[in-house]
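fold-stage: in
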Amino acid sequence: MEKGYEFDIYIHTEYTDDEVKNDVFNTYNKHGQVKEIIDFKVSRSIVLQQTQLRINDLIKRIDINEYTYVIFIRMDANLLSPVNLDDYVNKFSTLTGHFTRESLFHERDWDLFFISDIKPFYLYMHAYTIFCKKVSYCDDMVIPKNPAYAKEWKLYEETIENKDYSLSEIERICNTHQIRSCLLGKYNHYKSQQSEFDTYIDLFRAVECLVINGCEFELSNVKDILIHVLR
């Protein structure tokens, strides 16, 4: 356990079998940190957005503002090296996969595990779930705006929400945050497929939402911190 920090663990799962739940509880509750195991079944029609639905459900159940950090990890994801939570002040860091593949946003899986303190968590996740709603047409996907950050949302809405991103703007964001996206090499191709192009541009908007409000966005592979998925 990280020295100086106390952790509460909430587990979201579709498995309602008591034997499985007891095994999960015993595995994760070695220090008495498991607060709740939550049964939550996700429709197969929106399986790609399970993460956002689970996070939104947790926000409705617990007061995340009582915590210093939010750490999300898929149960089949294994962190390959230690992290120091003191490195994540005012930062949203998505811990990326150990293998590379072609992607419009980044060459590695980037939604397996994240660490964030509270302000960048709310800013990034709300902007990101706007993207997810467009993909799934599911209102439950959108994480609500935290009223504590009303000024930040006004700035986002005025400068980022409806911004038309040019190739040079995408290049600037990618270079700043070391995002390796095949969108750059195929910009004209995807630009001609406007709906798919707009979907991924919303991810860049989520990154920009942090930056304009004085927060950091980080992909963990720039620090050689990687995730291995147990498959």
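fold-stage: in (second)
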Amino acid sequence: MEGVGESQTTWKNTLAAFRRQFTQIDKLMSDAKACAENLADPRHGMNAKEARKLVGPLQRKLELVNNYVDSLHSILPLAAVTEDDGSFSVNTLTALLDQCMERTTTGNQDLTAFLDDIEEWESIHTKKEPKPEGAGAVSGGGVGPRAPELKGVATALKPVELTSSIAAHDMTAWVEQWTEFKENSAFSKQGEKSVIAYLKTCVSRDILSAIDYKNKNTETEMLDAIRVYLDTKVHPKVIRQLEIW
């Protein structure tokens, strides 16, 4: 087993590699967004075949950074020190890991959106040429391509982002979906900080700001604060508006 010093070096190298990959991902994603705009413009000659040439490189890069996030998860307990401050404190490393996970999640979402744009173009322009059974199959079976999932994370079960527009009667169902996502993912066994880090990726920024999430130390505290905020600040306002109408 590596000592703390070796683990900290591994952490720094892995984080640097993650950031280098995202420099390239950002460029590829910029090209993909421009490509999606061209697909939506009937005056442009862009087509799905050309657009899909960007999908493979993006998938490979995102799969790589997903692995880096897994590595950072494993390294964090070995590299962290107990001091409250410092570049290798638990809080500092957790915040960095949180940033990496959020950036990776956004990258996966952007790739999924790009694939949806391509499929929409195909549905419009190839109505008389339905895809043969098994089209889009990836090696090893299955239908694709789709944005890669973080290893050990049941991305397919992830709830939609919780926003202030959620109806009061839908909150219970949302919490049930979150619980299913958590219990079927590896992060549920990696401590409260990991659970909170993933929970934050499922909640909109306006709600996180409203509940002062940085001072919430457990999943229960965060969920309770969200319920209180929605029940006292959001839903009563909606009810008053309905009464006015």
